Amino acid sequence: MEPWELREWHAEYLDACNRHDLDAVRGLVDPEVRRAHLPSGQDAWIDDLADLFHAFPDWQWRRIQLVIEDDRIAAHLRGSGTHAGVYRGISATRRHVNVAEFAIYRVSGGRIVEFTGTGDAELRQQLGA
C-alpha cells in the first residue's frame, strides 16, 4: 500500500474502533496477528477491545500523529473514557481517564499482521491501581 493508502486505512480502522464496531475491526485484523507481549490472534484482539468497551462504554481515540514507512504505521493516539465497568479486575471507579498511547502496526493485504504498543500502565495508574 502507498503511504496515502495506509493513512486512509488507519482512519478507517480508528473510525471502526471509535464506533465500537468489532465486526468492522475484525475485518481489519489478520486472523493470525502477532502482538508483542500479548496473546496472538484476531480473537484475542477482539476480546481485548470488547473488555475495554465494556468497562469504558464511551471510549474514544484521537489521532495525534502518524508516521508511515513501507508497510508500517507508527501512531501516537490519545485514548479516553469513563470507567463504568470492571476492567482487568478493577471495579468501576466512574473516573474519566485520558491516556497517551503509542502503537506500531505492520499492515499487509489491508489487515494488521503485527502490532506492538504501549501497555495499559498509565490507564491502570489513573484508575488508582
Automatic annotation (TrEMBL):
<dbReference type="Pfam" id="PF07366">
    <property type="entry name" value="SnoaL"/>
</dbReference>
<dbReference type="InterPro" id="IPR032710">
    <property type="entry name" value="NTF2-like_dom_sf"/>
</dbReference>
<protein>
    <recommendedName>
        <fullName>Ester cyclase</fullName>
    </recommendedName>
</protein>
<dbReference type="InterPro" id="IPR009959">
    <property type="entry name" value="Cyclase_SnoaL-like"/>
</dbReference>
